[in-house]
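Task 17 of the worksheet. Students: predict the tertiary structure of the chain below and write it out as structure tokens. Keep your answer in the requested format; marks are given for formatting as well as content.
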Amino acid sequence: MNTTKWAVDPTHSEIGFKVKHMMFTNVSGQFANFTAEAQTNGDSFDDAKFTFSGDIDSVSTGNADRDGHLQSADFFDAAQFPKLTFESTSFTKKNEGEYKLEGNLTVHGVTKPVTLDAEFGGIAKDPWGNIKAGFSITGKLNRKDFGLTWNSALETGGVLVGEEVKLAIELQFVKQ
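Model answer:
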């Protein structure tokens, strides 16, 4: 079967995350500049291959000071490690519309295997004749596994920034 390439539609996609702040609330952020693509056998996403790359200097949490701190050497170190990348190793169907996405995530110069949950929303033609496919992807990872270890102790106990990062990713692909 022929290989089909799918390019991300960045205007209908987002790469989001949440991290605990002061142990009791979440701070949300996203990466504004990114690329992603998928390769499939025909229009079937079974066993698809996915790649992703995000620009660290595009991290946005709605607070310029916090964004600058995240881009600094305390966290992502955008000057030395300007991108985070993901390359899938498998995409396995669990149930109808539900998949397990496994791959290698590289952040801060550290590559680790991750497993994410993917919900396939389907394939449809938009009003302009483009064939599109949609996915919602979620998962959790520990930022310390990738060398993002900065923190500050709180007077009341605990730490300023949680270790667990929750991912919330919406991807819309356009068939090429």
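Marker's comment: The domain at 3-175 is CATH 2.40.128.110 (Lipocalin). Helices lie at 64-71.
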